[in-house]
Specification:
elongated, mainly alpha, 5 helices
Length: 164
């Protein structure tokens, strides 16, 4: 990649990755409020907002982060499978997106119930707690991936050593 394209690809990767982290942080706040509030209309609003953020912010940012990260690694000397930190990031990103897709389904169901005004305070409590816990775990994973990108710990894979 030319320096200009490389910088552009890096900027896109950083923006989508940090955006993903920020969107999940906002989602976590909504999940906490949705679970903790005793105001039924507030809880309904939180789950409707969570559904929109999940599908229209978190998912596109996650996919953008994955694609731009792969492009970035393939277009630079870091390579896709040369360093352990990149392999770990990919190993965390792909399952994170899969888990996100699984968790968006119950969120959409709860949001649909909330939209029609039939979500009551105690309903779906187990699902709502699970959403909160999963979102907290997602935030920990995203912070870990951010740390890996910042620190870039040494250590080449066997493939990377052969390439060198």
């Amino acid at each position: 990649m030319s320096p200009r394209v490389r910088r552009s690809a890096l900027t896109i990767h950083v923006v989508t990755s940090v955006g993903w982290l920020g969107a999940v942080s906002a989602f976590l706040v909504l999940a906490i409020i949705g679970l903790a509030t005793s105001d039924v209309s507030m809880a309904r609003a939180m789950y409707i907002a969570m559904d929109a953020i999940g599908w229209w912010a978190i998912l596109p940012l996650a996919l953008g982060s994955l694609v731009s990260g792969v492009v970035q690694s393939l277009g630079t000397s870091w390579g896709l499978f040369r360093y352990y930190w990149i392999v770990v990031k990919i190993a965390l990103t792909v399952p994170s997106i899969a888990v996100l897709l699984v968790h968006l389904q119950p969120i959409s169901h709860i949001a649909e119930m909330a939209h029609h005004g039939s979500l009551m305070p105690g309903e779906f409590r187990g699902d709502r707690v699970q959403i909160l816990v999963a979102t907290g775990a997602a935030l920990v994973v995203l912070i870990s991936m951010t740390a890996l990108s910042s620190i870039k710990p040494r250590g080449m894979t066997s493939f990377g050593r052969r390439q060198a």
